[in-house]
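Lab notes, practical 5.
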Amino acid sequence: MFVLAATVACSPSEPPAQGARSAERDPAAEPCLLSAQTYIHAPYDSVWHSLTSPEGFAAWHSAPGIKFGSAVGDSVTWGAEDGPLYVGVLRSYDPGEGFAHTFSFTFVRPAEETLVRWDVVPQGEVVYVRVRHDCAGASLTEGVITEVGWAKSLARLKSLLETGTAMPWPEDGGRP
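Output from the prediction step:
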């Protein structure tokens, strides 16, 4: 069984309209939280390593991990050594619960710093993983990630850890 969910929450009081895409609303008018979650049938340490180490991250994500610290204030970097794609700083790091880091594309000017929070919680034989990307005030970042970006990434992580192979990226140009 493959369980994966993705949502876009735009302002706490108003959920997005059925089938609404981020481009169909004014991102400056409402905060936006891109979110995806799943359960992974794998050892907790394997899930944690895949999320918090450069080599683990590179096996399933679109950008290889370059640096990922393990203490609040450490830097996190993805892309290539000679040209990082996005950078951030660890804001929390709690094995057994999750971690959070800032996120900023290096090619977006002016820079848009956002916050990505990961819940990574053991639940018996499975691990609950939820990513929440707060794109409030960062319309360019939101436009690049889209509401399905994190869902596709988590689907690759899930398939890698459960089958040994990350699923191929869908050939849909990033849209459902």
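Observations recorded by the TA: The chain has one domain: 35-163. Residues 35-163 form a domain with the Alpha-D-Glucose-1,6-Bisphosphate; Chain A, domain 4 fold (CATH 3.30.530.20).
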